[in-house]
Amino acid sequence: MRSIDQGTIPLDDASVRHLDLCLGCRACETTCPSGVRYGTLIEGARHFIESRHRRSWPERVQRWLVNRTFPNPAVMRIFGWSVRCMTRFGVHRLARAGWVPAPLRRLLRYLPDPKAPFRSVRLPERTAPRGEVRHRVGLLAGCVMQSLFGTTHTNTVRLLTEYGCEVRAPEGAGCCGALLLHNGDRERGLELARRTIAAFDSPELDAVLTNAAGCGAAMREYGEHFKEDPALRPAAERVAAKVRDVAEFVHGLPDVEPRRRMNVKVAYHDACHLLNGQGVHAEPRRLLKDIPGVEWVDLHEAEVCCGSAGSYNLTEPELAGRLAARKARNVTATGAEILVTGNPGCILQIQAALRDQGSSIRVVHTADFLAEAYTNGKAARD
Question: Can you give the pTM of this predicted structure?
Answer without folding.
Answer: 0.91
